[in-house]
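User: structure tokens for this one?
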Amino acid sequence: MDRLHIEGTAETPMVNFNARTGQMVLKGRSIPGNSDEFWLPLTNWFEEFMLKPSDSVVFKLELEYFNITSSKRILFLLYKLNELSDAGKDVSVEWHYKKSDVDMYEVGQDYAYMVKVPFQFFPHEEFELVNV
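Assistant:
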């Protein structure tokens, strides 16, 4: 359970979750053809992580685009981060977005409003996509 690493594709983001360091990264696009097949290992890993979390957690989202199903799964993970924060863990979210993508910035703002975990926003000129 220590690490979860999944290479990114044109339809799924790169995943790099590290239980020891508390660093979690999703990068790329999330429009999986079979949503459950992609997201189930992530949610299972997160559930196990919740049993023995690190004291500090940084969840870094650097997504160019995601569909509604992925949006719901991301929100689920963010709610899990709320639970960690409520348990006294130091938790934060880094929301990376393309500077010209106002919609993605606003989605991040919406998420930040829905959860208690502090968000930091990082605009970038362009993204370097993963394995596309």
